[in-house]
Write a structure and sequence with these properties.
Number of strands: 3
CATH superfamily: Winged helix-like DNA-binding domain superfamily/Winged helix DNA-binding domain
Radius of gyration: 18 Å
Shape: globular
Strand order of the largest sheet: 1-3-2
CATH topology: Arc Repressor Mutant, subunit A
Number of helices: 6
Strand content: 5-15%
Number of domains: 1
CATH class: Mainly Alpha
């Protein structure tokens, strides 16, 4: 039988989330092409979910359609997003990442990896903690499916 998660584990997950969010935002801030936090969340959501309709994207990033539309328009201007009319329903606009966005996000991922590596180098249990993070990430990803 699986033991329920303890309050200590829950608190640790919240601390991990806060730390990782800070690292991810710092990695975005290190890039030459500047983006807002909303734009960053949209880019990460599309990288994770693939092509989405505008309303699906707004729902996933927990914002209004209007705010999502504004942020997407700015990302289109930066060359990071394609807007494509849905073939079955012309009122629906599908949103997807461009190759430029993939390249930009790869830079963000490299910067984040370097920040994490630097943080873990100061810790004698770094390999054990990295393995635990990978295991937790895999477990949570599996539960999403």
């Amino acid at each position: 039988m699986i033991e329920p998660i303890s309050s200590d584990s829950t608190a640790a997950i919240f601390r991990l989330f806060t730390s990782m969010r800070r690292i991810v935002y710092s990695a975005f801030d290190m890039q030459t092409q500047k983006t807002t936090r909303t734009q960053q969340i949209i880019l990460m959501t599309l990288a994770d979910s693939g092509t989405l309709s505008m309303s699906e994207l707004a729902r996933k990033v927990n914002t209004s359609n209007e705010q999502a539309t504004r942020a997407v328009a700015q990302l289109v201007g930066k060359g990071f997003i394609n807007r494509i009319q849905n073939e079955n329903n012309r009122r629906i606009i599908n949103i997807s990442l461009t190759k430029a966005a993939d390249k930009y996000l790869n830079g963000v991922y490299r910067s984040a990896a370097e920040l994490i590596k630097t943080a873990l180098e100061r810790d004698e249990k770094a390999a054990q903690k990295a393995a635990a993070i990978n295991s937790l990430s895999q477990m949570l990803s599996d539960n999403r499916k």
